[in-house]
Amino acid sequence: MAAHGPLCDLTDREAKRVDWSKTKTIFIMVFLVLDIFLLFQFLQNRDANKFGLLSETSAEDQMKEEGITYPELPNEKIKESILLAKRKEFSKEDGKNLKNQQVILNEKNKLAATLEKPIIVSKDFDPNELAGFLKENIYEGENYEFWSFDKKTNTIVYYQRFGTRVFYNNTNAKLTLLLNENGEVVSYEQTFLEDIKPMNKKEEVLPAIKAIETLYNNGDLPGKSRITKVKLGFYNLLKSSSASYLLTPTWWIEVNGKDMFVKAFDGEIIEPDTEEKIILE
User: Which of 95, 155, 229, 280 has a CA positioned 20 to 30 A from the CA of residue 200?
Assistant: First the structure.
């Protein structure tokens, strides 16, 4: 016989309370799991956004953070062409008007000379002190620019320039002054490029900052690197045994006293030949 009355009603209410308690617990667990899931999603998105921001940070900002310094860079757009040039064949005529020297032409592409009166060079050498000598005593001497003074070998090196652009690291466009033990210029050797002309229409080159960033992204600029010089010139595009040469616009970047070169059209880093600049000591 079924039970009726107050006792039955009490049992039903307790059962409902138990059911609601279970339901409430289930809801709490569901919301807790949902909260954990949402928190996980939030942290994932935050980390992804942080990574995105780091990825979008410019190389320029990263270099600044790593203490890499460089001088003021040209801001204007620069256009240049690839150049075609020929090695000059020197003749006796080229040496006729050269003063205070005995010219030697043992090689057709090299002029060598011994000075009759040595030229004194000061201990604190300044390239300007030989400017007059180059102009008056060297074939096309005003078209060479100082590059280095190696006190170990007692040589002063200049490279030929075309306008304001130097032919970097080029043995076919080089002037080497030889000094004696007293620090006097006693002889020299010279090569020269002529018939220089553009091979193509002028095109815009990479900005200097992009050339620096190329070195940075390649791992060539460790933290605290000090870039002291950035200048556009030309570098041999291809090594050739012929009399003609192609020269491509190239950024010269001096880093911690070391010379680095980046092609200004495609950003390719050039591994220099054996010739390297030696800083004045």
Answer: 229
Q: Is the pTM of this model over 0.90?
A: no
Convert the chain into a string of H (helix), E (strand) and C (coil).
Answer: CCCCCHHHHHHHHHHHHHHHHHHHHHHHHHHHHHHHHHHHHHHHHHHHHHHHHHHHCCHHHHHHHCCCECCCCCCCCCEECCEEEEECCCCHHHHHCCCCEEEEEEECCEEEEEEEEEEECCCCCCHHHHHHHHHHHCCCHHHEEEEEEECCCCEEEEEEEECCEEECCCCCCEEEEEECCCCEEEEEEECCEEEEEECCCCEECCCHHHHHHHHHHCCCCCCCCEEEEEEEEEEECCCCCCCEEEEEEEEEEEECCEEEEEECCCCCEECCCCCCCCCCC
Could you list the pLDDT tens digit for every one of the 281 residues in the chain? 455 555 555 566 665 565 656 665 665 565 555 545 544 553 454 444 434 434 446 888 999 999 999 999 988 999 999 999 999 999 999 988 898 999 999 899 999 999 999 999 998 899 999 999 999 999 999 999 999 999 899 999 999 999 999 999 999 999 999 999 999 999 999 999 999 999 999 999 999 999 999 999 999 999 999 999 999 999 998 766 567 889 999 999 999 999 999 999 999 999 865 443 433 33
**What is the rounded CA–CA span in Å between residue 202 and residue 214?**
22
CA dist list (Å): 68 to 18, 59, 177, 222:
70, 11, 35, 8
CA–CA dist 196, 248 (Å, integer): 12
Residue 111 phi/psi, 5-degree rounding, is -105, 130
Query: How many Cβ atoms are within 10 Å of 255's Cβ, its own excluded?
Result: 20
